[in-house]
Amino acid sequence: MQRGAEGADRDRAVALVTGAGRGLGAAIARELAPDHELLLGARTTASLESILTELPGATGWPVELTDYPAVAAAAAPIERLDVLVHNAGIADLGTIAESSVRQWRETLEANLIAVVELTRLLLPALRAAHGHVVLINSGAGLRANAGWSSYAASKFGLRAFGDALRLEEPSIRVTSVHPGRIDTDMQREIVAGEGRTYDPAQFLRPETVARTVRTAIDTPRDGHPTEIVLRPR
Predict the structure, then answer these.
(1) Backbone angles phi and psi of 55, in degrees to 5
(2) Any idea which residues carry the catalytic annotation?
(3) Which of 42, 62, 118, 158 allows an S-S link to 47, with CB 3.0 to 4.6 Å?
(4) Each residue of 19-72: pLDDT tens digit?
(5) pLDDT for residue 202
(6) Using CA atoms, how far apart are residues 98 and 101, in angstroms rounded to an integer?
(7) Please, what sign has the CA dihedral across residues 106, 142, 185, 83?
(8) Mean pLDDT, residues 92-116
């Protein structure tokens, strides 16, 4: 029996979801769990404990995505990958006048460069499966607002990466998902930083975005969902 990753049964499709310990990543994991062998990524094993308890068939994939030798070692056993969902990222917001070289470097590193490198390492596995790369982008990847410059730059870059990957790797489907703001712990931190009262009804539910990701993955092979924009009502 061929295996797509250490311990992954090739009777089912294999999916790797980064940033899967909570929020949107955990919601995507739940959505894919019924018919995918899941590799769930996060920085630490501890941050995956809850979702792995909830989804006992899943396998933890703890690695710091900006530690590139560690990423290469973690990716090496994966021989075939049907779905790669890039969900991990950071949002360090502030005006250009208040920003620093450190902030820009860390944001671009986490949200763009680490995505590029993990995808590059997994290209042979994705090609073998005629796989699907899903990039969790943002409305900030379509327009930049005041106070969001470094984050928007990273997401504009992520969109450009997806566009180029789609053309360079015709056997792989690449979907950029641009959701509006989502009801997550990260969103609560952002709203607190903006000095506003948090109202979850103003934001998309993680489950709604996860269902959209699932719909893209389930699109029949004659269709290529290249870009999805989702906004709160």
Answers:
(1) -120, 80
(2) 151
(3) 42
(4) 999 999 999 999 999 999 999 999 999 999 999 999 999 999 999 999 999 999
(5) 85
(6) 10
(7) negative
(8) 97
pLDDT at res. 177: 98
3-state SS class at 206: helix
Alpha carbons 77 and 70: distance in angstroms, whole number: 12
Query: Residue 6: what pLDDT?
Result: 44
- Report how far residue 213's alpha carbon sits from residue 228's, in angstroms, rounded to the nearest whole number: 9
Report H helices in 76-204.
Answer: 101-108, 114-129, 149-168, 185-193
Which is nearest to 217 in space by CA: 178, 182, 179, 177? 177
CA distance 233 to 221: 30
Name the maximum alpha-carbon separation found in the chain: 57
Strand ranges, E, within the chain: 13-17, 36-42, 59-62, 83-86, 132-136, 173-179, 227-230
The pLDDT of residue 206 is 95
Strand partners, 83: 15, 132
Can you tell me which residue has the tokens 């103003």? 202
CA distance 230 to 77: 35
Residues in the chain, total = 233
Kindly tell me if the per-residue pLDDT of 189 is higher than 90: no
Give the residue from 98, 99, 101, 190 showing the smallest Cα distance to 138: 190
